[in-house]
Write a structure and sequence with these properties.
Length: about 120
């Protein structure tokens, strides 16, 4: 059974930083493209960042480019999202996503709230 478990969310002040982790199990982690999405109240889920399975290439949403870094540790079956210079509009539930031609999986999400 595939499980993606996010952690690291919480409350942070504007301008602050937060690091999220997503631990995967039940799949061959290194073969999956890993992505972070977010969904704010009343809005559609949107892609934040992605990292490739083979070459580790990365891509970022324009809204977060320069403020966020995605990375992965295949030995630990974990993908990370480091977020800096956070803004109130970054408040959302952040979801981990694993995708490959064999299937797609989602975590349960972790809440990030940016507020003073």
């Amino acid at each position: 059974q595939v499980q993606l478990v996010e952690s690291g969310g919480g409350l942070v002040q504007p301008g602050g930083s937060l690091g999220l982790s997503c631990a995967a199990s039940g799949l061959t982690f290194s073969r999956f493209i890993m992505r972070w999405y977010r969904q704010a109240p009343g809005k559609e889920r949107e892609l934040v960042a992605g990292i490739g399975s083979v070459d580790g290439s990365t891509n970022y949403a324009d809204s977060m480019k320069g403020r966020v870094t995605i990375s992965r540790d295949n030995a630990k079956n974990t993908v990370y999202l480091q977020m800096n210079m956070l803004k109130p509009e970054d408040t959302a539930v952040y979801y981990c996503n694993a995708v490959r031609w064999t299937g797609e999986y989602w975590g349960q999400g972790t809440q990030v709230t940016v507020s003073s």
